[in-house]
């Protein structure tokens, strides 16, 4: 159990339980490293990593870049907005051009689902999927599970509800797969229009009453309403969405038990979650961000050790 | 595969006492000294010496830590296996302290080289010494020598020194294994 079963991290779908355990155990060591006064180790000093972002990102890109630098890798950044993609270059051409500069690993975010899988078949480098459309966002799911494990001791047997825009969310799919793999019970909750058909086939249950869902769960992962991916109206008004699926302090205090609140960011304060909840003791939102660096260091370290 | 006993439990006990006395001679009250066991196998020896010094030789308090060097090794991606890390536990400052690295076997010296880099993440020590139970002669890749050695042995390539500890393997013994 000392190495990953995969050469790329394209999605949680391709991982097994041992992979996840190994990533978490390695992340524990890196979490200790990033809390030292000198937060850097020289492991990847002969590895070059390209961060290729065809879609906007603040948190994920910063987190990956920091993880790479903490491991002493050389880093190059690429964002589609300022590149030849605008001039009509294809994905494979773009990436192959980057790789001919002797790059060993590519971290890619792309608006099209499956872009990472496609790329892994055509280029000779280790690929990490940093989000592909509404498909998967594996490192986010790993850091979410890691944060649950840190807060509650283990993931197995815990009740987790994912609330909000399930339909457009890559975080939701990756989280469902990761949580089920580790033996958690998962519910999704949101307006019917934002819950995909046949989602039960992933082994989750659907609840449309937020209060019931929160009373059932140990952890609530609140998702953002992704207006940028919505071509039609999925609910009448934001105000109505907030009334039915927003979490506020009064609602949390009326529950039978104290639950853990998570959010992958960016938060729409006052829509899916109010400020006093986001900043409360029950929220582990900022722990998620810190753990993100440690988990990404673990993923990069383990994949880099398979590059020959 | 043949197995020869290099040191028996009794011999190890005598050596540990000698090493403890040598440390005591140089560091007296251990106020400005910290002991660092190198993971994974040096930590047992470090704990033993600390216990001896505090229980038998009346040292009041010793700062004992463990340092994992996995992320500082120079053979990352050069072998077949992923290098697995162990825990680092240093809950004190090493700035301006005399640091004693403690490991079971000194072989190529590469682990010690990594440890020298790794300890810098915790501050700038006043000086660093090295203590090893077994010093394999004629096998060094780097100019590194111990300040305190339990036993110096001549071991040819293909032979392996294995150190077992009571608290981990059930007995104190050092084997020379010919594979």
UniProtKB/TrEMBL annotation, chain A:
Task: List each copy of the Aspartate/ornithine carbamoyltransferase carbamoyl-P binding domain by range.
Answer: 7-150
- The residues that the entry says bind L-aspartate are 87, 170, 224
Identify the InterPro entries for this entry: Asp/Orn_carbamoyltranf_P-bd (IPR006132), Asp/Orn_carbamoylTrfase (IPR006130), Asp/Orn_carbamoylTrfase_sf (IPR036901), Asp_carbamoyltransf (IPR002082), Asp_carbamoyltransf_Asp/Orn-bd (IPR006131)
Instruction: Look up the signal peptide feature and give its range.
Output: none
Pathway connected to this protein: Pyrimidine metabolism; UMP biosynthesis via de novo pathway; (S)-dihydroorotate from bicarbonate: step 2/3
* The EC number(s) this enzyme carries: 2.1.3.2
Q: Which PROSITE patterns match?
A: CARBAMOYLTRANSFERASE
For the ligand (carbamoyl phosphate), the binding residues are 59-60, 109, 137, 140, 265-266
* Molecular function in Gene Ontology: amino acid binding; aspartate carbamoyltransferase activity
Record keywords = Pyrimidine biosynthesis, Transferase
Q: Which reaction does it catalyse?
A: carbamoyl phosphate + L-aspartate = N-carbamoyl-L-aspartate + phosphate + H(+)
**What's the subunit arrangement here?**
Heterododecamer (2C3:3R2) of six catalytic PyrB chains organized as two trimers (C3), and six regulatory PyrI chains organized as three dimers (R2).
Instruction: State the PANTHER family in the record.
Output: ASPARTATE CARBAMOYLTRANSFERASE, ORNITHINE CARBAMOYLTRANSFERASE, MITOCHONDRIAL
Its biological purpose: Catalyzes the condensation of carbamoyl phosphate and aspartate to form carbamoyl aspartate and inorganic phosphate, the committed step in the de novo pyrimidine nucleotide biosynthesis pathway.
Family, per the entry?
Answer: Belongs to the aspartate/ornithine carbamoyltransferase superfamily. ATCase family.
Q: What is this protein called?
A: Aspartate carbamoyltransferase
Automatic annotation (TrEMBL), chain B:
Query: Transmembrane residues, as ranges?
Result: none
For the keyword Oxidoreductase, the answer is: no
Which domain of life does the UniProt lineage start with?
A: Bacteria
Q: Name one GO molecular function term.
A: glycosyltransferase activity
Alphabetic keyword roster: Glycosyltransferase, Transferase
Q: Which Pfam families match?
A: Pribosyltran
Q: Lyase: is it a keyword of this entry?
A: no
Q: Residue limits of the Phosphoribosyltransferase domain? A: 7-154
Protein name per its UniProtKB record? Pyrimidine operon attenuation protein / uracil phosphoribosyltransferase
